Amino acid sequence: MSALASAGGDGASDRAYDILRSQHQPLAALFSPRSVAVIGASDRPGSVGRGVLWNLISHPFGGTVYPVNPKRASVLGIRAYATVAEVPEPVDLAVIATPAATVPALIEACAAAGVKGVIVLSAGFREIGAEGIALEARIRDGLRRSGMRLVGPNCLGLMNPRTGLNATFAGTVARPGHVGFLSQSGAICTAVLDWSLQENVGFSAFVSMGSMLDVDWGDLITYLGDDPDTHSIVIYMESIGDPRSFLSAAREVALTKPIVVIKAGRTAEAAQAAASHTGALTGSDAVLDAAFRRCGVLRVDSIADLFDLAEVLSKQRRRPLGPRLTILTNAGGPGVIATDALVRHGGTLARLPEATLTALDAVLPQHWSRANPIDILGDADPERYGRAIRLALENPNSDGLLVVLTPQAMTDPTATAERLVALAATTTKPLLASWMGGRDVEPGERLLNAAGIATYRYPDAAVRLFDAMWRYSDNLRALYETPALVPAMEPAATTDAAVAAGADEPHVDRRRVEELLAAVQAEGRTLLNEWEAKQVLAAYGIPTVPTHMALSAEAASAAAEAMGYPVVVKLLSAELTHKSDVGGVQLNLPDGEAVARAYRTMESAIVGRHGASAFGGVTVQPMLDLTGTYELIVGSSIDPQFGPVILFGTGGLLVEVFQDSAVALPPLNTTLARRLMERTRIYGALQGVRGRPPVDLAALERLLVRLSRLVLEHPSILELDINPLRVAPGGGDGALVALDARVLLQASSGASCFTPRPAIRPYPSAYVRDWRLPGGSAVTLRPIRPEDEPLVVAFHRTLSEQSVYFRYFHLMTLGHRIAHERLTRICFTDYDREMALVAERAGEHGAAAELLGVGRLSRIHDENAAEFAMLIADPWQRQGLGTALLGLLLEIGRQEGLERISAEILHENRGMQHVCRKLGFQLRPTAECVHAEISLLEPAAALPERAGAPSPAGAAARPAADPPA
Q: What is this structure's pTM?
């Protein structure tokens, strides 16, 4: 039993495999219009209205242009129309070049006339303040009612160089090519356009985004990702807009097309200037870097690098797997320069193993460098170059090779280039070349460029490119590190009885934390005291130092006596956060008298300086021996754009001085947690230094995963700090313990109670359901997870040729169906864009679990609708599983706010047609197939009793929050 989500059946048209989806182009009216109306067209020289009209009529694009101006009978000799409604044919695209105050009414007129897309060139909106924001609100209302899409306002317009469309007021038109260029700055657009004409760079699309009132980065990245003529995407960004839209689109498209971004606003001053320019929040630069890494986007710092990288990455299919570079040169100086640049940018010199050294000794002169850089001396001819390059490429410790040539007496740049081109076909490693010089090396450079080998005149520039390439590869690998459902040491309660009883995972007491936080907010507080904060951590299995509250000097002494000396006494306060700054920490107290004295001294000082409400007693804790241990900080905060952010770094009293920390977006898994730690200097020490054993890095990873889960499951947490987190080398019990903690909650009401949602959607555990086969076997219907790939491979091995044909409309080989690249894109799904479900049956008597079926909802771009696809393994067909799986997909569609779901089914696939009809789909036969569609705006059809409607996992308990996905 199977249905196909789109017509046609080969791998290219299967929506679960076809990443380009070239048949679905919701922004086609903007880029390929058949008719364009220029509202505000003018004869006046130098006006925007004249400029855009002239560009449209002087660059044929296969459509008709209509000037709209109520005061003119004609513009530039072309008949003009008073309103867009008077244009004699339907208008695909309207370009508005009138004052800002007139735009909302014009948008209403365009909507009434059925215009599909609008470009608003006018300025004077959010960038001028409240008046402009009000105008934008009116425009947004008009768009919402019509479904029309809008680029701008405050933009230059857009070009489609492949068709000749120039809907801008720029002075020139871009050359056709394969780079999609997007920019928030019109001035940057014109500068890049001028530069591209000199450098012979061509574009598949050239878009000035403006204020992104409607069409945003996500929309255009999706469009260019679908466009087969776009090979790479370059972006000039001032603000990110909707982070989830950007990350979702970039994460999907970056798998097949490089996305390179230059983001203005790294410094505080530049960020303020960018905010003033676009009228939008810019967010933290470090958090933005973390977001780019998480979605596979490469960030650069110069416009030259922007286009160099886009061009090279789109041509160069060989990508370095790491930062280790081999440098081969016929001169020592350039090798030294290249080495400096490599190390400065984070790369490393590849180590030459003994076997490689021996092999090089046999083909090189006695006085070669015997190290990396490999200096083959100034008299190197093409033969020596060829032999050395071949051996350097065979080095297993190297991720790439840079070949440097300086023109000397024995040098033949062209013949050497020919050798390098020939050897390039024998390796999977990236090759870079620096043919230094001028006229003498140009023929060789042309050969290298024609072969797709990146060539630079200077070796430091080539190294900078290699650094960017391996960082890009590293970012792409991060795309496949979607977090697992729960850490391996915290298995979920899997039995129906346990779930029904409200059992949670071991080490996690979510309900306890909810009750504690609610009690604090009920008291009108936002700051937890230390004891409360540690209770929150302990509920999620984060080790804390034993902490006892004491509300009197006598109680403090008694707690210390029971604990054993020496002890630490700390201020307990719901108002003061930094205890050390106010004398709220007393260390190494040897006896009860010292403890009581510390209590009274602290009480007197705090009450005297800050008032009685600032003193809530003390906590008594054992004095731990910190000799030889590390003090770390881990925590979370809320970024105004990206939502929760996780922090890791060097902690202690001097945390602000060392400034050694890194941030990441939750949800995390252990791999992502390790990557976060690797970006700090303290990580080198944690691996073991000067004879010290390494710390338990796996335990640190699990702690970060738990912290990630904690902040996602409790969005009322505004800030959380564990500082210091004591980590002892060697691991074991007590090696990892939180000595202090601080938790700040958001206000329970008022404007400050809003916090942005997480930028990356967590695993949608609310859609997990229990179901039973007719024979009673338990089946779990749940969203797919990255670690399901082996199960999907096994699932495909069970399918008959008929099931494969029904699903894909032709016979697809098993090797094609289980290819890692294909299954990676299926299992590592973006839950905002697609919702794939699996039906999993637990293995019996120690056998592995198996998948019985797979279903998928794929959102249709720019429509509030989706297409479904489903495939049930042959042994489990005709047992109600298809009905249950599709029923859950319909339920999810309603929960996600979709309006309709459809599919295309082969005429002979009567089983799938029967299931669709039973669940309320309307079936419409066509010549090729049967079109099935259901409106989700109507009440859900009741499932037949035999179908066994899936029941929520843990129906008697509150649904668990979305854990990492």
A: 0.80
